[in-house]
Protein 1
Amino acid sequence: MIRYPNGNIFNSSLTPQKTTIKNEVNYGSRGMTLEYVINLANEYYLNTNTAVIHKKPTPINIVNVAYPNRAAAKITEAYFSKASTTDYNGIYQGYYLDFDAKETKNKTALPLSNFHQHQIDHLNAILQQGGIGFILVRFIIQDEIYVYPANQLITFWQAQFNGGRKSIPYDNIKRIGYRVSYGINPTVPYLSAVKNLITATNK
Amino acid sequence: MIRYPNGNIFNSSLTPQKTTIKNEVNYGSRGMTLEYVINLANEYYLNTNTAVIHKKPTPINIVNVAYPNRAAAKITEAYFSKASTTDYNGIYQGYYLDFDAKETKNKTALPLSNFHQHQIDHLNAILQQGGIGFILVRFIIQDEIYVYPANQLITFWQAQFNGGRKSIPYDNIKRIGYRVSYGINPTVPYLSAVKNLITATNK
């Protein structure tokens, strides 16, 4: 199993790593990584013609490639590079969706250190184009997942530079976000919560 | 400079490889790769708040990663994997856009061998969700670029399995597609042609 320096599991696209990730799965929703259950949900949504949402491949800077005879090109030196956008985007009934997924072991707040300026700028640009931008946040200790609107995230992000707090309180996410209930198939039917966000956005 | 086995230049994301690709650029539009000019256009569209469109990073299967002391994680063995979607997607004034870019030295037709079943399925799913799917085709000899609707591509793709031809005629692309005129900034203002496609789609 391959991990990033931050401990996340590497998954360049949905299908090829499935067997690798399966080793991670315990029984029930606890023990599953957020990325894994989102990928499962996306697969379900794709197969049922509900939505087309994919995780973007991880951006990598390639330094060296070898071309062994009669074999596929082999990358022999490369480094992980920082993403300039969010991890997920796609389309749901005509709506452009764009989001990132974050897990935290912090019980009372989601630290803003989970985000980069680039991602905030990206989500802001998406909102300006009429897209549906949000984050999927999982509080690991409570085992609760929320769809939290990007405009709220942006407000907290900007406030931190004017003496505001460096995190979004759990209570705020619980109050303003849309709770994702666990299901059987998919395990994390997050589009039900996104639907509520879309309805609220269009009001 | 790093090349794929098919001769294309590797570009995991827009910014980091810019200097690498610049070596490719001659004067005028001839000599620029299609990918390069699309990236320039996307940068322009982003900076002018016109649209948010990105090329997805190239999907890679990572086999081995080394963690040298005090240094960034170094990927020491990885392979290029086949993309299950198209290369570009994003949002333009509320519309979800999804497309691939293809160049051909063939003067009379675009060979269907430029596409994979996965990409066709993906474009089909996008159309079903109400997205704007298309391909950007450049005929290198004529030095002409067209926005060609995904539903037309899908029709030709399916027909080939029922004895149809293995390529889309240049004449058909010229007649049904939307020509992209060259400009100064951006060099390839393809959204003007996409706008016409959107208008026709909504009629």
Protein 2
Amino acid sequence: MPSFQRICTAACLGGSCISLGFIIGRVSKKETNELPPRQSHAENVETVSACNPLSKAGPNLYSLFTLSAATPYRTSAESSVIPVQQPANAVQNMVKYGFPSTDNLRSYEDFMLSYDRRNRVPNWVLEHLTPEKVTVNEGIERSKMQFVEDESVHAFHRATNKDYKNSGYDRGHMAAAANHRQSHNAMAQTFTLSNIAPQVGQGFNRDAWNNLEKYVRALARKNKNVYVCTGPLFLPQYENGKLFVKYEVIGQNHVAVPTHFFKVVVVENTSGQLELQSYVMPNQALPLDTKVHHFLAPLDMIERAAGLNFFQNIPKGTFHKVNSPPPIKY
Amino acid sequence: MPSFQRICTAACLGGSCISLGFIIGRVSKKETNELPPRQSHAENVETVSACNPLSKAGPNLYSLFTLSAATPYRTSAESSVIPVQQPANAVQNMVKYGFPSTDNLRSYEDFMLSYDRRNRVPNWVLEHLTPEKVTVNEGIERSKMQFVEDESVHAFHRATNKDYKNSGYDRGHMAAAANHRQSHNAMAQTFTLSNIAPQVGQGFNRDAWNNLEKYVRALARKNKNVYVCTGPLFLPQYENGKLFVKYEVIGQNHVAVPTHFFKVVVVENTSGQLELQSYVMPNQALPLDTKVHHFLAPLDMIERAAGLNFFQNIPKGTFHKVNSPPPIKY
């Protein structure tokens, strides 16, 4: 079970060996068999589509579910239909292969997310990347962008810059800023704190995790479409024979520090073939020379641990490659 | 700040003093001022209602959001509109004062819930109680009922009886079985594992928590309507000057053992006056003589910790009583 060994290696790097007990009994021997049943978990989406038979999968459907980024929190008396401001096809493209969940959705110009109000971090963030989107645009300067609170979230459940200050953690992007170079607005929106989770800086956010993000952009440059779902994990550890989930919370609003992060990537090459790559990285300083393929992990492990299903509209057996190691460069 | 002292007392009972740091700065001095802004957080509900203007708040609206209990997990190809099998007004009555959240909703004959797929326990369970519903019905025998898996949840995220077996924890009801005596089916559905969370048995589920449930039924017997929202909390503790959330997970599916449970109760008396009572209890053996009023806790503390908003359709200042101690008997 090479991929299971890899995830164990990944989880144990840095000295903190995380239990993956509930995977062991279920991981299939062949990587191509590791995928779970390809079933849709987007019940709400399906049932609402019935409400508008003329728009079975059109943009109107998704606008019913999502708040655009600029929508401040408002009372029920004030709200009605909330205009979605992103390009008409942006969300459609992102959710082409399914919704991971339908809780507290927010749609931005070039990514969307589900927000975890209990932990003040995303549940998941979904992006659709193309060669054009990741091409460097000299006019857009990341250094001028600022982290901002998400005013569409009730103040009780909102992460703030103050929560991160002096915490020792970076404000880590889930949708990477450099994935969204089409417009100033698209990149600026990745600095919304709903797209952010506390990450170890040196050795992780600025190194190993950054390498994974760079690798995904390299994939996007060389392929037709890349779909990326990124988010936190809170994995348990053994202590005196029992399993415990343990994670730090920072700031007055108790922003959760994930123990790990996942990244699930579907690559559509220029021939239309689909490849799956799924990664788990522990949120800790990692050896600088670690290749990204050390963090490949079975998709079903991530799905169980995150409580999510990814890209469930892709039928089982469709992928021509699953968790094949990337070229040696990465 | 009497209510804050109470919650500290509650949290410290049993020797495990839980940090409530993020509450301290925000608890108002007067109980009547402790309520947060009364705002709706049910964005999805509002936006979907616009999809069907003829049914602004009718049963069709809610049927779009909820799966009935008997609906097995199915693929997107199989699902369309899912019939809701409970009495037409049951869900409407439960959500009269608002939805706590709109993630993974399940509606049963006499209660509804939001399921936490990551933790395999409910996010919250909502009930509407009346004198009739809690009246003992001799024909319905609780002892004959069995705990069952929720087949509407994907197998990756479903709690099973095997997970609880030999764990040392009770299968604790969120919607109490004895609150639903109208029919065999209504009570039997409370034994679905989506309505269950691991609870300490002796001293908690069978004692202190049971006393709170009995007290709520006593309220239901004496008043016109009682609305109850119940669920788990995962509260942080200080360790070496930092705050950590730590909780056990049990079984192959890693069912989370909550550190605490909340119960938020809105009582409408026969004059139509509304009273709010909100409780937090640590999931541990508690002294047998502890009165329920020791566990009264500010609503905003629960809302922040749970990532939820409760009964948000009730305007601020409407309650004629907030967290007034119950009679000495309890």
